[in-house]
Amino acid sequence: MTPILELRKGTKLYRGVAAVKDVDFDLNPGEVHALLGENGAGKSTLTKMLAGVVEPTSGDIFISGEKVALPTPADALKNGIAMVYQETSLVPSLTVAQNLYLMDDKPFHRLRGIYIAGQQFLQSLNFHVDPAALISSLGAGQKQMVEIARAVHHNAKVIIFDEPTATLTPEEKYQFFALVGRLKKRGVSIIFISHALEEALQISDRITVMRDGEHVVTDHTSNFDRELIVQAMVGRSLTEELYGSFQDRQTRQPGRKVLSVQNLSMGDVVRNTSFSVFAGQITGMFGLIGSGRTETAKVVSGVLKRDLFHGGNVQFEARPVRYRVPRPAVKDGIIYVTEDRKSEGFFETMSIAYNIYLGALAGGQADSPIISMKEMRTLAEHWTKALNVKAINADAKVIELSGGNQQKVVVAKALVQKPKLVIFDEPTRGVDVGAIAEIHQLINKLADDGIAVLVISSYLPEVLHLSDRILVCRQGRVVEEFDGSQAKEESIMFAAVH
Amino acid sequence: MGLLGQPTQEKIVLALALVLCLGFALLLPGFWTASNLLNLVRSVSILGILGVAMALVVIGRGIDLSLVATMAVAVAWSLQLAESGMPMAQALAFGLGFCLLIGLLNGFLIAYVEIPAIFATLAMGTAVYGFGRYFLFSLDIVYMPPDAHALTWVGQGTLFGVPAPIYMFALVSALAFLFLRYTRQGRYLRSVGDNLLAARITGVPTRPIILMQYMISSVIGFLAGCVTAASVASMNVRISNSTLIYDVILVVVLGGIGLSGGKGGIRNAIVGTLLIGVLLNGMTIMDIQYTVQNVIKGIILLTAIVIDTLLNPRDEQTAQQGDI
User: Fold this and answer.
1) Whose CA is closest to A211, among A434, A391, A53?
2) Nearest Cα to A109, choosing from A96, A97, A119?
3) Can you name one GO molecular function term for this protein (chain A) (predicted)?
């Protein structure tokens, strides 16, 4: 069988560094092909070469056996290859139908005409989206549907999905899988990048694993299991070490009550939630997207101001507190480590050393009005060593580091402020497997040292692995509490969705 | 690369200024003389001082379009007060107070009311000019009282043969440099410009810092106004409606201080000022029309930005998701 899409000896260099090295990749007609690998493995670059977004430094692309050049995404689309990105490429201020027909070669569209055509077309795909709705009014799942519909409308024979399920709720995920099945029946071939191994095992026909820009293995999905994939991804068996035997683990006893939240509300997002966090213990907070976990943490630490529709009270160290900005919370010892390090975690124009030092300046640990280069060096040296930040030296810019090392710098900036309560929001999101283990170790050490730790995560194995106590959030409030050593995956998930 | 390291916009602009200097020196008689060079720097000193003020605000991811209007009205008011019999020192104190108040208002609107800086300061500039023109003085030009010798020196005096405005420019630059680099507030300002949300979460007092940055720019502006008034013994309030404010922004952007905040330093503002100085001086010696000079200024700015973009391309890959 001739593959519908094939890349031979594909290489892409960025400033002399290979993001993808001599990779062979092929996609059969009507196949779902999962592409797996750690962050930085080269998955995105590989698919972007196929979609005409990135030009290969060397290597050839073949469509149904014929050699082609794809200098732009429009060329790829003409050849039937469409890519659906993590961040959608839809125009938010236009309607669904306008977006669908945006790239047709027609100078004008009659709105009524495209709404009717759009309605029929969306129905034929079994999508329940109003063609006259503005894109900006849609949820993540619906936007993705429109994006897929657009690809189908352009007669795409190959659709490439970059992390399609990362932003979807469980129901939307289910719908997405059903859709992949329907697309397959229509003869569309699919490439599917994912971090979620279970999904790949569930819906793909073949799996390719990449590591450090190189091709590791391609085989039929039935020949893989979770363990084998992880081994191929990391080149060593880490699952046991990472998420292994959390069942027979010793849990820590709670120390004094550090944080106590009673009947806290904020708008529609946080609804009458109550919980406590104790010193010397890791409290895990699990919940699906939209369960108000992050917002609760942000209200407690002053990052979000409670608006008019608020209520409830927060006690920190047996003292009622109410923060309108994070600064007094930081001064009191409540540190929030963000889930979105790029937009609110670190300072990209500054070096590692300055990032850490700024934490000390703002937290009052380095409180002279004139800054001291010596103090900065000492701090930077101490923390880069303690957290094993891998960089050429402390003068390297944070933006140049890998996701895991960026996260370590953000954590160092928080820990330098000598917290009494640390709130980690998705501490290992977008972090490579090796660094995940190190960050988990660090979180454990903090609790062992007597600090109160709250870990928010939407990855169940992580919560189970780390937590001494587990709080489950649903619809803006903590609905159930589990003991870390006794909790079962199924019962936590049950509490989170019902 | 090599000895010079990564070519940045700052280095390109400096090189461009040196090349222009060399060209003018070889081709234009009278350019490469001590008196002309001093005159060159002198002529851009005020622009340079304003550039430093603007640089501080832009590094903090803001912009102060009311800078020139505030300086003109505050200084003109001071002169008006002095003319009507108030001691010069007291009159200047009133002017300075006016500047601080406007800076505070700007900062309040931007930090607490959360209006975009460009609108807040644009409106403020117009309001300040109108207010001054209607309530504070009746004529567009306010003259300096003849007995203000101390102030006159700032604009017209010399020390060791070097005109006083150059000293003022050097002094303001040095202070701003030290502030930005070695004080805690300076680091805070840069962190706010780099990433406001991260600064807030880290515990930086972001709103007070924004207030501070507009107050500082107003005060430096007042200083620039004093030098202006002293060198021509008057203050023409119409300067608020001139293109001076755009020249100030030109100097800042040309030197390589990104409008997106956090990038560059005082050095960049100085380099930008020098290039403009060399260019204007050379063109004046060559007797090029003022309107043509504007065209050339615009082209130079575009060229500098294009070269910077070519040498330091924004890496879409890292800029968007950081995942290769």
Assistant:
1) A434
2) A97
3) ATP hydrolysis activity
Give the gap in angstroms from C-alpha B95 to the nearest C-alpha of chain A: 29
Q: Give the tokens for residue A237.
A: 């068996």
Q: How far is A243 from chain B, CA to nearest CA, in Å?
A: 24
Q: Identify how many contiguous H helices and E strands chain A contains and give both numbers.
A: 18, 20
Tokens of B151: 């102030």
End-to-end CA distance of chain B: 26
CATH 3.40.50.300 domain extents, chain A: 5-243, 257-497
- Residue A358 and residue B191: Cβ atoms within 8 Å? yes
As a whole number of angstroms, the distance between CA B187 and CA B225 comes to 28
Please give the Cα distance from B301 to A204 (Å, whole number).
53
Tell me the one-letter amino acid at A472. V
- Calculate how close chain A gets to B99, using CA atoms only, in Å: 25
A134 touches chain B (CB under 8 A): no
Test mutation, A327, A355, A400, A417, chain B, max B CBs within 10 A: A327
Query: CB atoms < 10 A from the CB of A222, how many?
Result: 10
**Hey, which residues 192-211 in chain A have their CB within 8 Å of chain B?**
none
The contacts of residue A480 (CB under 8 Å, 6+ apart) are A471, A472, A495
Q: How many helices (H) and strands (E) does chain B have?
A: 14, 4
- In angstroms, the separation between the Cα of residue A16 and the nearest Cα of chain B is 14
Scanning every residue of chain A, which has its alpha carbon at the shortest distance from the alpha carbon of B208? A327
The CATH superfamily holding the domain A257-497 is P-loop containing nucleotide triphosphate hydrolases (3.40.50.300)
Question: Which SS3 state, helix, strand or coil, does residue A372 take?
Answer: coil
Nearest residue to A46 (alpha-carbon basis) of A83, A77, A1: A83
Q: Provide the H-helix boundaries in A136-214.
A: 140-153, 170-185, 197-203
Print pLDDT tens along chain A (498 aa). Answer: 788 888 888 888 876 667 788 899 999 988 999 998 876 678 888 888 888 888 888 888 998 888 888 888 888 888 889 888 766 678 888 888 888 887 776 777 777 888 888 888 888 777 778 888 888 777 777 787 888 888 888 888 899 988 777 667 777 778 788 888 888 888 889 998 887 778 888 888 999 988 878 888 888 888 888 778 877 776 654 445 555 555 556 788 888 999 999 988 887 788 889 999 999 999 999 887 678 888 899 989 988 876 655 678 888 988 988 888 899 999 999 999 998 888 888 998 888 999 999 999 988 888 788 888 888 899 898 988 888 888 777 888 888 787 788 889 999 999 999 999 999 998 987 777 778 888 998 999 999 999 999 999 877 778 888 899 999 988 888 988 998 888 877 788 778 776
Architecture of domain A5-243: 3-Layer(aba) Sandwich (3.40)
pTM over 0.95: no
* ipTM > 0.85, yes or no: no
Instruction: For residues B37 and A213, give the distance between their C-alpha atoms in angstroms, rounded to a whole number.
Output: 56
Question: What gap in Å lies between CA A299 and CA B209, rounded to an integer?
Answer: 23
Rg for chain A, CA atoms, rounded = 25
For residue A163, the chain B residues in CB contact (below 8 A) are none
CA distances from B225 to A27, A42, B46, B70 (A): 70, 57, 8, 9
Cβ A347–B262 below 8 Å, yes or no? yes
Q: Is A23 on the interface with B (CB under 8 A)?
A: no
Complete DSSP assignment for B184-231: HHHHHHHHHHH-HHHHHHHT--HHHHHHHHHHHHHHHHHHHHHHHHHH
